[in-house]
């Protein structure tokens, strides 16, 4: 591959120390010249290039780069940020790159160079022009041997390809040779992925779903906070803001007299002086008591709270509180500054808390925002950047003529938004097709609209430690959302312990921090694997699946439906792999579709067993009509789905029968020809019979319920007997035919 631009046509990149890293006209609206880093700065903050409101700090820390190679990589980094993608990469469609890549891509590329630079420095390489193709081959081989995900290695090596592509614009000492994975015999740009197959060791480039033992209680507490606790938190916040507004900035006449009268009244009634019990002071007092064994010192008075109560300035309270408390032997500071709001939310029939303290309001408001974020992100499947930048009025409700209600959310999307030349537009665009969501999501949006004042539903300003930055957006960032979710989990666990609900405690996830990306993957996982299951507090996953499908009708872009297809393929593969294993161990099968079940397990074992499924194989698995096997242990059966004969499919026998690609377990009929049963299913049925026998033997059931259980026991007994009389025993040969 040769460069198509001659170097003498273009001035070589060698910026002066005070040269801006990028021009102000490319920065987000509101950014100033002071937000633009200079070439000689040790840190380049590129966040101003991202125009979204959920922008995080995107920094290049040059101290992380090997000193000998740092000047050359800084010049190459400036070229990457300011020059269009070179022609060699643009000319090959397989490279999938743009003339102006997104700032997150550029940041990742430059950061990746730091790994390469450290490795080169360990080989005593002191300038970029000393890099040889043999060194690059050694680096690629070593990176592949670490067991890292193949796609991570692909991106790292393509970052080096980008460095090579800018060679015509760089000084001679900053140029590297063409990487060996870009050779014509390997296939050229874009085919580097195929040249890396021998370096793949393990790992799947997929976001891990949140473990069910974590997601279930997390969702329970999020929904509980949004539905039951929200009115109390919102009313407390209104009262806190009223008190803050009621205290004038400047001292007003008569204010000191009001303060003296207030303390006299407290002395007469025996009421305590409101105390300042912030979370930090709570921690210090607990630490003092734990270390010394003695009671902690009294709290300081909450002068801001008192000023708001009396309508005087904080300075007037500060000037009198010490003398008033010191001169009286009947005044003592209380445990906090409780707000005069009623607690209406209940948990197990009793108030979820006693009072809300002035100093607790901000933390509770953050927890409420986090709970709404969890509900919206999880129950909608909206991408993180889109969720965090939702705005007031984004949710609309449609009451249909048939009595059904549809809630829809409209917002901006960013991932695939490009201009006419294919360049990424950092400001995004309004989504053409809204998201269809269920009622709890709509309720969460309503709560956020009551909680926040501006346009954004998730503003960063709703925080005790908010620091405005002109180069950043105004919305929560994904990183801050992770921290908020961690704090919400800890707060929920405190409530669980306080109310004796240890079974609802949120454990640590085995895959690490709960991120917004994982919510999207998890809901797809549950939709596929729990088609008739229920989300906590009775929300049906099946209903949610239908809503998502309705919201994506007619769309062909890569989005939630592709994610659902991937999860469907993974679930089918897991079902067939388990079936083949059990059949090889001699498990029996019965039912009208028993032979199809055996055939499907055998075909899967022959075609896919023992390997890692690629995306192409996932698609083939979903499309293969002979491998559509769906296990449904709750109904003690497996559905070998054929849309033309399935009794759950209203369109069976019609031209559009294949429009329903998966079975509807809620309409499952015992006479369906697609049913098969295994020994595993009958063992589950036997366990249910044992439970029914125990319930009946206790003699505490009303007669109608007893009769219903007896009918259930009779039906399950008949199911087991039918299976035993017609079962076909599986053999190792039957799964390897």
Strand order of the largest sheet: 13-14-15-12-16
Provide the β-strand percentage band: 5-15%
Shape descriptor reads: flat
Helical run tally: 21
**Stretches with pLDDT under 50, minimum 5 residues:** 1-9, 184-205, 531-559, 732-737
Q: What's the number of extended β-strand segments?
A: 16
Subunit organisation of the chains: single chain
Helix proportion of residues, in percent?
40-55%
Specify Rg, calculated over alpha carbons: 32 Å
Organism: Streptomyces katrae
Protein name: Integrase
Keywords: DNA recombination
InterPro entries: DNA_brk_join_enz (IPR011010), Integrase-like_cat_sf (IPR013762)
Walk me through what this model shows:
The protein is an alpha+beta fold and 737 residues long. The strands form 6 sheets. A 5-stranded antiparallel β-sheet has the order 13-14-15-12-16, sandwiched between helices. A 3-stranded antiparallel β-sheet has the order 5-6-9. A two-stranded antiparallel ribbon has the order 1-2. It comes from Streptomyces katrae. This is Integrase. Keywords: DNA recombination.
Summarize the structure.
The protein has 21 helices and 16 strands.
Task: List the topology elements.
Blueprint: E1 43-45, E2 59-61, H1 70-82, H2 87-91, H3 103-122, H4 133-144, H5 150-165, H6 212-246, H7 255-269, H8 279-292, H9 303-310, H10 314-326, E3 346-347, E4 350-351, H11 361-380, H12 384-388, E5 395-399, E6 405-409, E7 412-413, E8 429-430, E9 435-437, H13 439-451, H14 478-498, H15 516-529, E10 534-535, E11 539-540, H16 541-551, H17 560-584, E12 588-590, H18 594-607, H19 615-623, E13 629-632, E14 637-640, E15 675-678, H20 679-697, H21 703-726, E16 728-729
Antiparallel strand pairs: 1-2, 3-4, 5-6, 6-9, 7-8, 10-11, 12-15, 12-16, 13-14, 14-15
Helix pairs in contact: 1-3, 3-5, 6-9, 6-11, 6-13, 7-10, 9-10, 11-13, 11-14, 11-15, 15-17, 17-18, 17-19, 20-21
Organism: Streptomyces katrae
Keywords: DNA recombination
Protein name: Integrase
């Amino acid at each position: 591959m040769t460069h198509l631009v001659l170097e003498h046509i273009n001035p070589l990149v060698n910026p002066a120390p005070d040269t801006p890293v990028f021009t102000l006209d490319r920065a987000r609206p509101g950014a100033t010249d002071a937000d633009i880093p200079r070439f000689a700065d040790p840190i380049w903050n590129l966040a101003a290039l991202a125009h979204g409101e959920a922008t995080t700090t995107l920094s290049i820390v040059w101290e992380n780069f090997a000193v000998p190679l740092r000047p050359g990589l800084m010049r190459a980094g400036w070229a990457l940020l300011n020059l269009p993608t070179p022609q060699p990469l643009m000319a090959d469609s397989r490279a999938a790159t743009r003339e102006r890549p997104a700032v997150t891509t550029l940041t990742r590329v430059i950061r990746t160079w730091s790994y390469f630079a450290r490795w080169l420095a360990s080989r005593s390489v002191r300038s970029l022009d000393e890099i040889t193709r043999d060194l690059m081959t050694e680096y690629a081989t070593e990176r592949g041997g670490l067991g890292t995900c193949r796609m991570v290695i692909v991106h790292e090596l393509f970052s080096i390809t980008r460095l090579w592509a800018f060679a015509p614009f760089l000084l001679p000492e900053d140029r590297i040779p063409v990487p060996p994975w870009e050779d014509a015999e390997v296939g050229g740009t874009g085919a580097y992925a195929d040249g890396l197959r021998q370096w793949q060791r393990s790992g799947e480039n997929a976001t891990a779903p949140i473990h069910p033992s974590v997601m279930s209680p997390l969702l329970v507490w999020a929904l509980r906070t949004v539905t039951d606790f929200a009115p109390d938190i919102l009313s407390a916040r209104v009262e806190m803001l009223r008190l803050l507004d009621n205290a004038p900035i400047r001292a007003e006449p008569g204010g000191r007299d009001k303060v003296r009268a207030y303390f006299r009244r407290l002395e007469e009634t025996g009421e305590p002086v409101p105390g300042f019990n912030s979370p930090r002071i709570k921690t210090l007092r607990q630490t003092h008591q734990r270390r010394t064994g003695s009671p902690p010192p009294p709290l300081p008075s909450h002068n801001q709270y008192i000023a708001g109560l009396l309508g005087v300035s904080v300075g007037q309270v500060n000037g009198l509180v010490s003398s008033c408390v010191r001169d009286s032997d009947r005044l003592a500071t209380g445990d906090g500054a409780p707000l005069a709001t009623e607690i209406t939310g209940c948990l197990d029939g009793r108030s979820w808390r006693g009072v809300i303290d002035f100093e607790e309001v901000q933390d509770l408001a953050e927890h409420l925002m986090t709970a709404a974020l969890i509900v919206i992100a999880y129950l909608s499947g909206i991408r993180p950047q889109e969720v965090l930048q939702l705005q007031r009025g984004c949710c609309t409700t449609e009451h249909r003529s048939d009595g059904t209600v549809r809630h829809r959310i409209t917002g901006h999307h960013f991932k695939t938004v490009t201009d006419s030349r294919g360049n990424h537009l950092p400001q995004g665009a309004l989504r053409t097709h809204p998201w269809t969501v269920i009622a709890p999501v709509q309720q969460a949006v309503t709560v956020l609209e009551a909680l926040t004042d501006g346009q954004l539903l998730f503003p960063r300003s709703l925080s005790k430690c908010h620091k405005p930055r002109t180069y950043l957006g105004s919305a929560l960032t994904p990183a801050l959302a992770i921290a908020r979710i961690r704090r919400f989990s800890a707060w929920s666990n405190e409530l669980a312990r306080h109310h004796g609900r240890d079974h609802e405690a949120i454990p640590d996830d085995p895959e690490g921090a709960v991120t917004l990306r994982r919510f999207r993957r998890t809901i797809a996982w549950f939709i596929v694997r729990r088609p008739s299951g229920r989300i906590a507090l009775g929300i049906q996953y099946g209903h949610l699946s239908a809503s998502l499908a309705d919201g994506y009708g007619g769309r062909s872009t890569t989005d939630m439906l592709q994610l659902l297809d991937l999860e469907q393929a993974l679930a089918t593969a897991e079902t067939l792999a388990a079936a083949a294993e059990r059949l090889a161990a001699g498990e029996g099968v019965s039912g009208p579709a028993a032979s199809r079940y055996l055939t499907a397990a055998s075909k899967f074992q022959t075609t896919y067993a023992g390997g890692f499924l690629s995306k192409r194989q996932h698609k083939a698995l979903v499309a293969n009509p002979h491998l559509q096997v769906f296990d449904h242990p709750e109904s003690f059966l497996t559905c070998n789905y054929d849309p033309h004969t399935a009794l759950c499919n209203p369109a069976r026998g019609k031209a559009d029968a294949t429009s329903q690609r998966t079975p509807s377990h809620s309409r499952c009929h015992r006479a369906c020809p697609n049913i098969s049963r295994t020994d595993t299913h009958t063992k589950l049925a036997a366990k249910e019979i044992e439970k029914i026998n125990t319930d009946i033997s206790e003699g505490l059931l009303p007669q109608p319920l007893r009769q219903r259980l007896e009918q259930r026991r009779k039906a399950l007994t008949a199911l087991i007997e039918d299976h035993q009389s017609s079962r076909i025993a599986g053999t190792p040969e039957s799964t390897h035919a």
